[in-house]
C-alpha cells in the first residue's frame, strides 16, 4: 500500500506590498452667485472620499472626491461671515507590479497640504496634496500535511503551529441621525454659517456574529441668530451612537482592526414643537473598514521516516503570520501657545479641532516609537469689529513609545491614530492652552517561515546499509540534537532508545551518553 499524505487547505492573506500615491489638486473655484465677495479667508475644511480602486495592466486607478468647505469674511456685507463649498473629482493611477483584480486593496489618506488663496473677490484657488497609501493583500492557499497513511511502520513527528488568519475583511456604512435643540438662552436659528463634526471616544467590541460600535459625534456649530444680522452664535452638541454591524462567524476570541470615518453629512434647520426654528436635524454617514483575525492552532506533520522503506521528502517553504500583540495606548498632549502678533486678540474660545498624522515609526527591542503631529484649528471671538471671528492654526507634536514584546524589523504593523479629545482654554489675549489625547490602536504581526512536506516518494530499503550498521552503538549527543534526529539517523524508534536507556526526560541534551541498539524489524521484511 503506497504512502499518502493527508493535507488540509488553509486560506491566508499575504501582504503583497504597499505604495504611496500623491494626488495633487490645483483648482480655481468661483464664488457662487448668491454669495457675497470675499475679503478674507478664515479657515477651510476638506474631506477625501475614495470611491473606488480599479485594477488594470499592473496599475491601480484611484477615484474619489475632494470635498472642500471654506469660511470667509465678506466684503461690504451685513453678515460677518459666509461659507462656500466645492466638490472636486480626483483620479490618479499608480504602477504596482503583479497586482491582480482578485487582490484586496486597502486605502488610507492624509491631506498633507491645504492652501486656499483668493485670486480676486469672486474666485479662489485651492491647492492641496493628498497622500494616499495603498496596501495590497493577495489571497493565498497553504496546503499543510496533517498526517500520513499507507504503512504500519511509519515514524511520524508533529509540530504545533499557530496561524493568524484573516477571517473577515469588508467595508460597511453606518448612519447616525439625531434632532438637536439649541439651549433656551440662545436666539432662534436664521442660518447655519459653519459646522465641524468629528468622532471621539471610539470603541469596538467583537461579539458572536457581530461587532458592537460605540462613540460620540462632536458637533460644533456657528449660526446666525434671528435677533440681528450680526448676531453670531455658537453651540456645541454631542451625539452618542451605539450600534452593531453584522459579521458572520466572528466571536469574542478573535481580534479586530476597525476604523470608522465620516464620509458624508447633512445638517438642516427644523422647527421645534412650538414652530420655532430651534432644532438642528443631523444626518451623518460613516464608513467602517473592518478586518477580523482569528488564530488557528494545529498539529502538522513535520517529518517522516520508515523502518522498512527509504523515504524521500519534498518540502516547500511557506510564509504565514502569527499575532504578536494588540495594544491600545493613549498619548496626552498639553501645549501653551502664543498666537502671532499679527493675529487679532482673543476674547473668547469657541472650539478646537484636531487631525492627527504619524510622521515616523521606529522599531527597537520590544517597543515601537511613534512620532507625529496633531494639526489643530482654534476658532475664537476676536477683538476686532471688522473681523469678529478668527481661526488660528497650531501644530502639536507628540511622541509615544508602545510596548511590543518580541517585535522585529520585518514585523508587520497596523497603527490607527485618532484624536480622542481636544480642549482649548484662554490664558490671555495672545495666549491659549491646548489639551489633547491621541489614541493609538496597534496590531503587530510576526512573519514566520515553515518548510512543509508536499510530496513523499518511497524507495526500496538499502539492506546493505542496515547490515553494515553495528548492532550496538555508544553515542554522545551533539548540539541541538533531539531523540527524533538520532532515531531517524539510526533507523530505529524513539521509544526503543528511551527503553534501552531508561530515559524519563522529554528529550536529551548535549553531552548525554546513549546506547543505541539496531532495529532488526527492517531485516525481517
UniProtKB/TrEMBL annotation:
Residues 473-516 form the LysM domain. It holds the Pfam family LysM. This is LysM domain-containing protein. It comes from Vallitalea longa.
Amino acid at each position: 500500500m503506497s504512502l499518502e499524505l493527508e493535507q488540509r487547505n488553509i486560506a491566508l492573506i499575504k501582504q503583497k506590498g504597499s505604495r504611496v500615491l500623491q494626488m495633487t489638486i490645483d483648482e480655481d473655484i468661483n464664488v457662487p452667485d448668491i454669495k457675497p465677495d470675499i475679503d478674507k479667508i478664515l479657515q477651510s475644511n476638506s474631506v477625501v472620499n475614495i470611491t473606488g480602486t480599479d485594477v488594470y495592466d499592473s496599475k491601480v486607478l484611484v477615484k474619489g472626491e475632494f470635498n472642500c468647505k471654506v469660511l470667509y469674511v465678506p466684503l461690504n456685507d451685513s453678515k460677518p461671515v459666509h461659507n462656500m463649498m466645492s466638490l472636486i473629482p480626483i483620479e490618479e493611477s499608480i504602477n504596482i507590479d503583479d497586482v491582480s483584480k482578485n487582490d484586496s486593496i486597502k486605502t488610507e489618506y492624509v491631506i498633507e497640504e491645504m492652501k486656499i488663496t483668493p485670486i480676486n473677490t469672486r474666485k479662489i484657488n485651492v491647492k492641496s496634496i493628498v497622500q494616499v497609501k495603498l496596501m495590497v493583500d493577495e489571497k493565498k492557499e497553504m496546503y499543510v500535511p496533517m498526517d500520513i497513511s499507507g504503512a504500519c511502520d511509519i515514524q511520524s513527528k508533529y509540530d504545533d503551529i499557530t496561524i493568524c488568519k484573516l477571517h473577515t475583511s469588508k467595508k460597511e456604512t453606518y448612519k447616525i441621525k439625531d434632532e438637536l435643540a439649541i439651549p433656551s438662552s440662545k436666539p432662534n436659528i436664521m442660518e447655519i454659517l459653519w459646522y465641524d463634526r468629528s468622532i471621539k471616544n471610539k470603541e469596538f467590541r467583537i461579539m458572536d456574529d457581530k461587532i458592537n460600535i460605540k462613540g460620540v459625534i462632536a458637533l460644533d456649530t456657528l449660526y446666525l441668530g434671528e435677533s440681528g444680522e450680526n448676531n453670531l452664535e455658537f453651540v456645541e452638541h454631542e451625539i452618542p451612537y451605539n450600534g452593531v454591524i453584522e459579521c458572520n462567524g466572528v466571536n469574542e476570541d478573535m481580534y479586530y482592526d476597525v476604523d470608522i470615518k465620516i464620509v458624508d453629512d447633512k445638517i438642516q434647520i427644523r422647527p421645534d414643537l412650538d414652530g420655532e426654528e430651534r432644532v438642528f436635524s443631523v444626518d451623518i454617514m460613516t464608513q467602517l473598514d473592518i478586518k477580523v483575525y482569528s488564530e488557528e492552532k494545529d498539529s502538522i506533520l513535520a517529518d517522516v521516516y520508515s523502518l522498512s522503506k527509504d523515504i524521500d521528502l519534498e518540502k516547500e517553504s511557506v510564509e504565514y503570520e502569527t499575532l504578536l500583540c494588540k495594544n491600545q495606548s493613549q498619548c496626552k498632549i498639553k501645549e501653551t501657545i502664543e498666537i502671532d502678533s499679527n493675529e487679532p486678540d482673543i476674547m473668547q474660545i469657541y472650539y478646537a479641532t484636531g487631525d492627527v498624522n504619524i510622521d515616523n515609526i521606529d522599531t527597537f527591542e520590544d517597543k515601537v516609537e511613534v512620532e507625529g503631529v496633531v494639526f489643530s484649528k482654534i476658532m475664537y471671538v476676536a477683538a476686532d469689529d471688522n473681523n469678529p471671528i478668527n481661526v488660528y492654526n497650531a501644530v502639536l507634536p507628540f511622541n509615544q513609545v508602545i510596548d511590543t514584546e518580541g517585535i522585529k524589523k520585518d514585523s508587520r504593523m497596523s497603527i490607527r491614530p485618532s484624536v480622542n479629545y481636544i480642549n482649548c482654554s484662554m490664558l490671555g489675549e495672545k495666549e491659549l492652552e491646548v489639551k489633547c489625547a491621541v489614541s493609538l490602536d496597534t496590531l503587530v504581526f510576526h512573519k514566520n517561515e515553515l518548510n512543509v512536506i508536499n510530496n513523499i516518494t518511497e524507495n526500496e530499503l538499502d539492506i546493505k546499509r542496515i547490515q553494515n550498521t553495528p548492532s550496538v552503538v555508544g553515542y554522545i549527543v551533539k548540539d541541538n540534537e533531539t531523540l527524533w534526529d538520532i532515531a531517524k539517523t539510526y533507523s530505529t524508534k524513539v521509544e526503543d532508545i528511551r527503553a534501552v536507556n531508561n530515559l524519563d526526560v522529554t528529550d536529551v541534551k548535549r553531552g548525554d551518553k546513549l546506547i543505541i541498539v539496531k532495529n532488526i524489524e527492517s531485516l525481517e521484511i
